[in-house]
Design goal:
The chain has 637 residues and is α+β, with helices and mostly antiparallel strands. It has 19 helices and 34 strands. It is elongated, with a radius of gyration of 30 Å.
């Protein structure tokens, strides 16, 4: 079977009149200047689009989509609308003029948008002498050193004579063949960069599909605002397609919507899958040579084809200086359909210039961060953990953040931008690993939080033990605990199965009132005390059971009880468990070494344990984001 066709988005970049549009025309045969003013003035003002179908290195069909951007300083906002979502950049530099101001600004923008691949082209090579060409080539190689273009070729070409075009096309195919396939787990989003009326069809929009897929007949929502539309037809590279996937330049024929109702920057989504947000927690980087961004600064925010004014509130500093990166919260003047890991660019000043950008860490931050310093510090610490975490660990941190409230799969998908189907597989694995609980199949919470929910119910019942054993109405108890109904019902059911309480009709009774013997607490407490006394070097369950005279099956049951109520924590698959207080003591000790690195030998000496315990303990510290593994060492976060 032939490999599936792949789509790769290539964007031009460079100073005005350096030959970007002519180069795209030489590669594709398409003139991307479509506006009368562009024809009259001979410069690109708005975005232009062209395409080329060829063969990838593996023989599959390769669809190259070119986004041609304007090079004039006055039209950088249009350049930003086209640069977001591209896979690689074609940096065009005139052999006559060399590196110019917009060359530098466009390259900085590409870096801020985390574009990692590119080719540098010396255009108009036939217009200069060989000596001048070599001189410019040396200057350009020096310019791209240490940038995203450093690993790519620098090619001299002429769109006028055709010299070098064939070699450039080969390099583009090689570059595009190496672009990673976009994740199939991302939710559907299509930022609109053009909307127009096509005779016989009606409203048509174009854009780069940054996640998911789209088919004719799909119902979509337009954000911000939430208006709905239906897809009548899909085109890729001017040809009708049944379906278009992530990474494609697409044109959608929409019904039930007029072009006057659409704006550049609107984003098409599946209804209710992605919310429009106006508050973001971010990682903010300021370019070298740019002015500092001060606390509460007002700046121009650009993401995909959208732009608005934003106010930056810094977490840990009074300002972010040139070359520095800090955590910040942005409050947008207009809501946008943004998600974690989306990149953005910031501009400010007079005249307005690009001063920085960064990455969105959390598009659903807790409210009122500015209230208390301790709350602000706690949020900043959570963001630092999120920044250093893997993709799976980021999802885990979001579940853990919800605590006793839990989070539904749909809410988790809206918060992460990962499809519910992809999250479902991850959640099921966590359930098998006994890391999360899924009460009522509608709410996810960590086992630690579920243990806290159980404890909350027991604490509400405890004052009723002894003299007052009449119990409490189930509805009243749920109201007192403040737990979600599914979480409450599941916790109550598990406590009743363990005979820690009794449900009698509409009433919940403490275990003593239920006629239970109360002997359960003796062995459970004894076992907990033994584990706490053993610290971080506990014996195996078999050894401990023999010492206490507890049968293996009963031992497994008692350990399960202690794991569920959070007193014990399982460290590995071979039943190695430790008391939570012992782990908290170790964690506090390691936190005191923040910024230092540890190898296994150093950790063994520090903790006073053998390798048998050192490896599971280090893996636990990695999972809980106290440390992060870097080769054979751990960095203390």
């Amino acid at each position: 079977m032939a490999p599936a066709a792949r789509s790769v988005i290539l964007g031009t970049a460079g100073h005005i009149d350096h030959g970007k549009t002519a180069l795209v025309r030489a590669l594709t045969g398409i003139d991307t200047d479509r506006l009368p003013e562009e024809k009259r003035r001979g410069i690109t003002i708005d975005l232009g689009f062209a395409s080329l179908e060829t063969q990838a290195c593996d023989g599959s069909t390769l669809r190259l989509s070119f986004v041609d951007v304007p090079g004039h300083a006055r039209f950088v906002r249009n350049m930003l609308a086209g640069a977001a979502g591209i896979d690689a950049v074609l940096m065009v530099i005139s052999a006559e003029e060399g590196v110019m101001p917009q060359t530098e600004e466009h390259l900085a923008i590409c870096s801020l948008l985390s574009i990692e691949r590119g080719i540098t082209v010396l255009a108009k090579a036939d217009a200069v002498s060989e000596e001048r060409l070599l001189e410019t080539m040396r200057a350009v190689r020096s310019f791209v050193r240490g940038t995203l273009l450093a690993g790519g070729p620098v090619l001299a070409v002429s769109a006028h004579s055709g010299s070098g075009i064939a070699e450039l096309r080969r390099e583009l195919i090689r570059l595009a063949s190496g672009v990673p396939v976009r994740s199939p787990d991302a939710v559907f989003r299509l930022p609109i960069d053009r909307a127009f009326v096509m005779k016989g069809f009606g409203t048509v929009v174009t854009g780069t599909l940054i996640g998911g897929s789209v088919r004719a007949g799909d119902e979509l929502a337009i954000l911000p605002g939430g208006r709905t539309t239906r897809v009548r037809g899909v085109q890729v590279h001017g040809r009708p397609e049944e379906e278009a996937g992530a990474g494609s330049r697409v044109a959608l024929n929409l019904v039930r919507i007029e072009t006057a109702e659409l704006n550049r920057g609107d984003i098409l989504v599946v209804p209710s899958s992605v919310p429009a947000v106006d508050t973001l927690d971010i990682e903010l980087s300021v370019l070298r040579g740019a002015p500092p961004v001060k606390h509460r600064a007002r700046i121009h925010f650009h993401a995909f084809a959208s732009e608005c004014i934003a106010t930056a509130t810094l977490y840990d500093a009074a300002s972010v200086g040139p070359g520095e990166t800090e955590l910040a919260r942005l409050r947008l003047s207009e809501p946008m359909a943004l998600l974690p890991d989306d990149r953005f660019v910031l501009r400010m000043g007079t005249p307005i210039t690009t001063i920085g950008g960064g990455r969105i860490l959390d598009a659903h931050p807790p409210a009122q961060v500015r209230q208390a310093q301790t709350r602000k510090a706690k949020t900043a610490e959570w963001l630092r953990k999120l920044h250093a975490a893997s993709r799976e660990e980021r999802v885990w941190l979001r579940v853990a953040r919800r605590g006793l409230s839990g989070v539904s799969p749909k809410e988790l998908s809206r918060e992460t931008g990962i499809t519910e189907a992809a999250l479902g597989g991850l959640i099921q694995r966590w359930i098998r690993e006994d890391r999360v609980h899924l009460p009522g199949e509608t709410c996810i919470l960590t086992q630690e939080s579920f243990a806290m929910a159980r404890q909350t119910i027991l604490e509400q019942l405890r004052p009723r033990s002894g003299a007052d054993s009449s119990g409490v109405r189930r509805s009243e108890l749920r109201e007192q605990t403040g737990l979600d109904s599914d979480i409450f019902d599941d916790a109550l059911r598990s406590l009743e199965q363990e005979r820690q309480l009794q449900v009698a009709g509409a009433f919940v009774l403490p275990s003593a009132a239920s006629g239970g013997s109360g002997h359960e607490h003796g062995p459970v407490s004894t076992l907990a005390e033994e584990y706490e006394r053993a610290g971080i070097t506990p014996p195996s369950p078999g050894e401990l059971g023999m010492r206490l005279g507890i049968a293996p099956a009963e031992m497994r049951r008692l350990i399960t009880l202690l794991l569920r109520d959070g007193r014990l924590v399982r460290l590995s698959d071979d039943s190695l468990c430790m008391h939570r207080r012992a782990l908290e003591t170790l964690t506090d000790k390691i936190r005191g070494l923040r910024g230092q690195t540890l190898d296994i030998a150093t950790f063994k000496q520090l903790a006073g344990v053998s390798r048998k315990y050192a490896i599971p303990l280090l893996e636990y510290l990695d999972r809980t984001r106290i440390t992060v593994k870097q080769g054979n060492q751990r960095l203390v976060l």
